[in-house]
Amino acid sequence: MTRQAISNPLHADEGADNGAPPPQINAPRHRRQLRIPPDVAQRIVVGGLWAIAMSAVAVLLFIIVFIMVKGLPHVTPEFLLQAPAKGGRLGGVSPMIFGTIAVAGLAVLIAGPIGVITAIYLTEYTRESKLTAFIRFGADCLAGIPSIIFGLFGFVFFADTLGLGISIISGALTLALMVLPTIIRTSEEAIRAVPAAFRDVSFGLGSTRWQMVTRVVLRSALPGIGTGIVLSIGRSISETAALMLTSGMVARHPSSVFDSARTLALHFFTLSREGISMPKAYATAAVLVLAILMINLLAYWFMRRFIARVR
Amino acid sequence: MRASQGMPKRSPLGAWLDRKQDLFISSILLVVALSAISGLVVITAFIFKEGLPIMLQVGVGKFVSSSDWYPAEGHFGIFPMIMGSLAVTAGALVIGGVLGLGCAVVLTQFCPRWAVSILKPSIELLAGIPSVVYGFIGVVILVPMIRVHLGGPGLSVLASSIVLGIMMLPTVTSISVDALQAVPKAYRDGSIALGATHWQTTRMVILKASRSGLVAAMILGMGRAVGETMAVIMVAGNTLDVPDSILAPVRTLTSNIALEMGYAAGDHRKALFATGVVLFVIIMILNTIALTVSRRRSRRKSGA
Amino acid sequence: MASEYKRYARALWLLAMLCACCALSGCRRNTAGGVNVMGSTSIQPFAEVLADEFNSRHPSSRIDVQGGGSTMGIQSVTNNLAQIAMCSRELKSSESRYLKPIIIALDGMAVVVHKDNTVSNLTREQVREMFVGNITNWSQVGGEDRPIRLITREEGSGTREAFAKLVMNNQRVSRKALTQESNGAVKELVRGDRAAIGYMSLGLVNDEAKIVNIEGIVPSTDNVRNGSYPLVRPFLFVVRMGAVLSPAAKEFLEFVLSPQGQHLLVEEGLVSVL
Amino acid sequence: MMSANNEMHKVDHIRCSHVGEHCATSPGPAKIVVRDFHAGFGETQVLRNVSLDIYPCQRLAIIGPAGGGKTTFLRSLNRLNSLEHDFRHSGSILLDGQDIFASNVDVARIRRRVGMLYAVPIPLPLSIYENLTYGPRLAGIRDRHRLDELVETSLKSAILWDEVKDRLREPAHNLSGGQQQRMCLARVLALEPEVLLLDEPCSGLDPISTAKIEDALDELKSRYTVVLVTNNTKQAARASERTAFFLMGEMIECGPTAVIFTNPRHGRTSDYITGHFG
């Protein structure tokens, strides 16, 4: 019904085929049956869509407010600066803040360049072939493998076989593998969306392929690539299962990348699920959410500056 | 040569390098790409190597279709988990897909600029919230709500679908937004010029033109939902029965793996890897379906 | 503008290189004074308390406590990634051939129900019939008319294995039972659901849930220690047979079994083995 | 075919001496020599047996109905077609006597010497200044003053300098369509190319912008060899010394513009010019 109403103005001669007088866009009320005039449909749909978008924002606000109300009262300067004691029942989360930054940061530093380069290779340096389709397919499939399996792989391969031990670097490498499919796919989509004409022009002005890629394609694909990377940072920060087995649970300031470190998410998980201390758990969650809030805002601010400069 | 006198001359070596640059860079990129891809291949091989033998030993058919999961007694059947994963993912896709796509359409089509600058980052922020926090809030808020108002244990397909739907929303939205934005403005203007309303244009022109990107968004979102572990363990209930309603508790493939991996040894552990293999295959099938659907449609379109 | 952008890029590169250099210069896996303890997530919080205390007494040594689960702990000990494993289940026969278990504490297991549940005593028989699925309503054991909601732990967890052995006589737990992966999760469910029954580590129960007496016996520390309370499981530290432990590891084990160490565990709600 | 070509040469030489006043230098040997050039993509044959000379400091207009291979021909002259993986060709194209398809050729250099302007303006997502310096920078020019100078002279040549001299740092997107196209022209000129390829450069523009582009081209003809593909026969008549007519992948005829438009040898040429088809 909506479909008909909608398709009519664009195929204005449709009605004529059925012997009815040609419909006039200005007089939609006289059409057959229940028909919603397009402008009304537009209003309904747009209203509905806005409701959907608003509900998403409402969920976000609810989560943030809930965590903040429950957790912020327990977030004190000492909480941010002290190491935990008594299995987390006392003390703070400073080693976890550090560990989170180290593990997630390192993971994205590893996976980001590799993922983007792979995407560049797949889009700009090879032709569409069975192989590229296969790689894309494999990446999509891996995106759905539960992180615990990545964790086990990381434990067996990085920690044990490569002898890196249960350490920040093992955790970061495992996380890098986990987010790699996402980075590759989002970068690929972003690069593909760059108009082909830009490539033509760049070549026409005497660029090599590499110059074309770095100076034109990457620049216009940057917001899309950035989205993928921000998503990956989010995923890295919030990961628990894979890190439990690779970067470990030691609640102490690490002194090198070969030390074990516990992340905030893991700390929150232990505190809340083992029922050790709810106030500390909420406080940890509050710190975690605040940190993510800050990272996103920062990334967003950078991106906007960049886009403002480019467009 | 008059015209190019301003251009610096290259040494013969430099010129040769310039000429061969594409080749060099291409091979360097190839190495990096191959290392990334080999990483992905190795982990795939790892899963299959650990999981396939026990699966063949039990018998693939029995492993997939039996409902008896008693690892201590050597019974390995994951039919309920397969159904559980499918149910939860379908629910999540309905919720997350509708929400995510809705958000993307609003963001790209019906939204003033200032609102985009609030909406988009908040949706991306949702992606950064740890799954344990989602699961935790699910347990503390959503589960009691379902238990009190709808009955059942609260831990249920419905709870997991809602939590997963919200978790996949940012993935779906951000990729859909990119796809929708890639549609040339001329399409939209052209349609509006033909008298279509904004919504008609969106529906008939923009959504169609960006279909492949939207499908990719759904696939990636679905991948996130199928593969999510921690939040699902917390809110799904993890019973061994096939769920008979959306209020029934459910165990998914991922939660099966993550629940027991920490303690499993021997055949039990291998059976959990085999669960991973099944998960991988399911995702493969889902992706294949999605790919062929989008490809066939686009072919029919271009043929018409 | 382009050069400005390039300068940013260059600065970023430099920074990244610098970070890499720092990270690499810090490249030393100091296993010298470090002891890895890895395994069961239910023992982990207790082990952390022990390690904290030990580390503060011996600043030169470092005890690292990792989670991962009992099996991961045993695997790590086997592969030399850790010196001590924490295990909340009993060793499998294949494992006990080359591993040595050390009981560090006993953990009573409490059967817990909702605070408002009127049932306060159950026999082992009744608990078993509930978890098997033969008793399905609280009225059958003298409570309100309300279907019973079972909450169990995941297959393979130490708590579940102990429960299976001590209560279930190795009968299967009903398929309808909700499975939770931690003590805290069981507690959270029981706290909110009037129909629920579950079991968890005694040391972690607080006033949010109600502990049921088993066979009329109150699950107190004393009753656990003197053996009259039936639901007890050991917490194990596991080392490799014949492995040469580092001095720090040895000292740590000694500390755990010493009165001070045991006192810490008792404070945390466990039952001493002394 | 060859003999026809030779004939044309003669005609051209005569003609060129007539139009000598347009040219700063006298028409020496051909700048670009195309011989027996065939080209296609995959299974599709697009160009058949094209032989053509393009003389320095002259404007050659290529006209013909759509699908005649004009653009493919143009894109062959700076090897842009080689970017398509299924592009194949035979025959030769010589630029100053050098085969541009030879294996030891620096393609980027060829493209700098043979600049191209597209049918629609395609500003790169950069500022106006960066757009203009894009090519020179790639060619290795780093000197700030030299770049500034190039920007100014090329913008002046494209008759755009006065309109944009105060907004060089703005994104090029902000310009109007006609201004964008002139910026694109300036961008090519900044490379100081020897040959200019223009692919229907005015097809999307209003008459005023078209006039401005044509004015700019008129000033440039003394310094550049220009190949202009156009659908607009009037433009071809106005803005070229010689004209070639392409039909269905073949070059039907080529000669002085005045001759082609008044007294073509082939019936199909006159049909096209008088608007009977295409």
Could you explain how this protein is built, in words?
The complex is a heterotetramer of chains A (311), B (304), C (274) and D (278). Chain A has 311 residues and is mainly alpha-helical. Chain A has a single domain (92-310), classed as MetI-like (MetI-like fold). Helix content of chain A is 72%, strand content 1%. Chain A has helices spanning 2-10, 14-17, 38-71, 77-81, 94-125, 130-142, 147-161, 168-192, 196-204, 209-238, 241-246, 264-273, 278-310, and strands spanning 84-85, 90-91. In chain A, strands 1-2 form a two-stranded antiparallel ribbon. In chain A, helix 12 (264-273) packs antiparallel against helix 13 (278-310). Mean pLDDT of chain A is 78; it is low at 1-29. Chain B has a single domain, classed as MetI-like (MetI-like fold), CATH 1.10.3720.10. Chain B is mainly α and 304 residues long. In chain C, strands 1, 2, 3, 4, 5, 6, 7, 8, 9 and 10 form a 10-stranded mixed β-sheet that branches. Residues 25-32 of chain C have low confidence and may be disordered. Chains in contact: A-B, A-C, A-D, B-C, B-D, C-D.
What's the SSE blueprint?
The complex is a heterotetramer of chains A (311), B (304), C (274) and D (278).
Chain A (H helix, E strand, L loop, with lengths): L1 H9 L3 H4 L20 H34 L5 H5 L2 E2 L4 E2 L2 H32 L4 H13 L4 H15 L6 H25 L3 H9 L4 H30 L2 H6 L17 H10 L4 H33 L1
Antiparallel strand pairs in A: 1-2
Chain B lengths: L11 H47 L1 H6 L3 E2 L4 E2 L2 H31 L3 H16 L2 H19 L7 H25 L3 H9 L4 H12 L1 H17 L2 H7 L16 H9 L4 H38 L1
Antiparallel strand pairs in B: 1-2
Helix pairs in contact in B: 1-12, 3-6, 3-9, 4-6, 5-6, 5-10, 6-9, 6-10, 7-8, 9-12, 11-12
Chain D lengths: L1 H17 L13 E10 L2 E11 L4 E5 L6 H8 L9 E9 L2 E2 L7 H7 E4 L10 H11 L5 H14 L3 H4 L12 H13 L5 E5 L7 H14 L4 E5 L3 H6 L3 E6 L2 E7 H6 L4 H7 L5
Parallel strand pairs in D: 3-8, 3-9, 6-7, 7-8
Antiparallel strand pairs in D: 1-2, 1-4, 4-5, 9-10
